[in-house]
Design goal:
five-stranded parallel β-sheet, globular, disordered N terminus, 11 helices
Length: 258
C-alpha cells in the first residue's frame, strides 16, 4: 500500500483527495452520475458561470457544452497546480465556450457583486467548517445576479459502504474522526440545504443520487475504490483506530485491486 501522504492525494494547499490524478479517476469512475447532476442543475445556454473550486477542471468540458458559444465560464481554484491543469485542458480540448482561470479562495471570491448568472461548486464545501460554509454561501450569494442560480454538489460519506466489509467499521472510523474538518464536512452533504435556507435563499431544493458499483468493475472503478480505501486506512492509522479496522481496510483495498 502507498504511504499515508500518497494515499491522501493532497494538493499544495493541504486538501486531501484533491490532487489532479485522483480527481480524474474519481470523475471517470462516477461519470454517469456526475454528468447527470450537472445537466440537471439548471444551467442555461449563454449564461456566465463561476465554477467555484474547479479542481483540475473535470466538469468544464460538459459545462461548456451546456452553455454554448455565447456562454462564459470562470474557473477558480485555491491550488495553483489545479489552475495550471485547467489551462492545459483548455489548450488541448478547445471547449465550446470561453473559460477564464484564476487562483482564489471561495471564502473571499475575487469578483464584483452580481457578476454571474450561476455559481457551480462540486465536492468543495466538504473542506469547510460550519462557520466557513456559511461564509462561502454568503460569497456565492454576493457574486451571483439577483434571481440567479447557486448549485452545490457534495458527497455524504456517512452512507459509504464497501461490501463485504462490515459497515460498522466505517461508522466507527467516522466517529473517531469527528474532529477532522474535512471528514465532518463530508458527512454534511445531505443536510446542506439547511444552510442555504438559513442564508435566506429561495426555492431551495435537494436531489440525492446513489452511486453504486458492483462486480465486475471497470479498471477505473477499481482504482477509485482502492484509492478511497487506502485513504481511509491512512486516516485510521492517524486516529489510532483499532488494528482490526486498519487491517480490514487494507484487505478490502487489496481485494479490489486484484
Amino acid at each position: 500500500m502507498s504511504n499515508i501522504s500518497d494515499s491522501q492525494q493532497v494538493t499544495s494547499i493541504g486538501h486531501k483527495l484533491s490532487a489532479g490524478g485522483h480527481l480524474d479517476v474519481h470523475y471517470l469512475a462516477l461519470k454517469d452520475e456526475y454528468d447527470a447532476t450537472l445537466c440537471g442543475a439548471g444551467i442555461r445556454p449563454g449564461w456566465s458561470v463561476l465554477d467555484a473550486g474547479a479542481g483540475n477542471g473535470v466538469f468544464l468540458p460538459l459545462m461548456a457544452e451546456l452553455l454554448g458559444a455565447e456562454g462564459h465560464i470562470y474557473a477558480l481554484d485555491l491550488a495553483q497546480e489545479n489552475v495550471e491543469a485547467i489551462e492545459r485542458l483548455i489548450a488541448s480540448q478547445q471547449p465550446a465556450c470561453p473559460i477564464a482561470t484564476r487562483t482564489g479562495d471561495i471564502l473571499a471570491l475575487p469578483y464584483e457583486a452580481g457578476t454571474f448568472d450561476a455559481v457551480w461548486s462540486a465536492n468543495v464545501i466538504q473542506y469547510l467548517s460550519d462557520e466557513e460554509l456559511t461564509q462561502a454561501i454568503g460569497e456565492f450569494c454576493r457574486v451571483v445576479k439577483p434571481g440567479g442560480l447557486i448549485a452545490v454538489k457534495e458527497v455524504d460519506i456517512s452512507v459509504w459502504q464497501y461490501q463485504p466489509q462490515d459497515p460498522k467499521l466505517m461508522w466507527r472510523l467516522l466517529d473517531a474522526l469527528s474532529d477532522d474538518v474535512q471528514m465532518s464536512g463530508a458527512m454534511r452533504g445531505t443536510r446542506v440545504s439547511a444552510w442555504f435556507r438559513a442564508a435566506g435563499l429561495e426555492n431551495v431544493s435537494a436531489i440525492s443520487t446513489l452511486a453504486e458499483r458492483r462486480q465486475p468493475l471497470r479498471p477505473v472503478e477499481r482504482e477509485y475504490i482502492r484509492n478511497n480505501l487506502e485513504f481511509l486506512s491512512g486516516l485510521a492509522q492517524r486516529a489510532s483506530c483499532p488494528k482490526r479496522i486498519i487491517a480490514s481496510g487494507r484487505r478490502s483495498a487489496k481485494s479490489q485491486s486484484v
